[in-house]
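Friendly challenge for the regulars: who can give me the structure tokens for this chain first? No prize, just bragging rights.
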Amino acid sequence: MAEPKQKTSKSKRNMCQSHHNRNLAVLVDCNTYGELKLPKHVFNPCVQCDNREIIEAMEV
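First reply, four minutes later:
Bragging rights claimed.
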């Protein structure tokens, strides 16, 4: 089995693991319903994105 030639210090190990964090999704309130949604995404019940109606674009 492969063995490391040098011991990896706690500092080097932790610096490598610092990039393994999860990016939490930022949620914003829907202006109409007040429920949480992803920014710049269409919210299904009210069919709006950034306070603009998107329903005609979805029907095409």
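Residues 25 and 51 are 20 Å apart (CA to CA). The chain is about 20% helix and 15% strand. Your move, everyone else.
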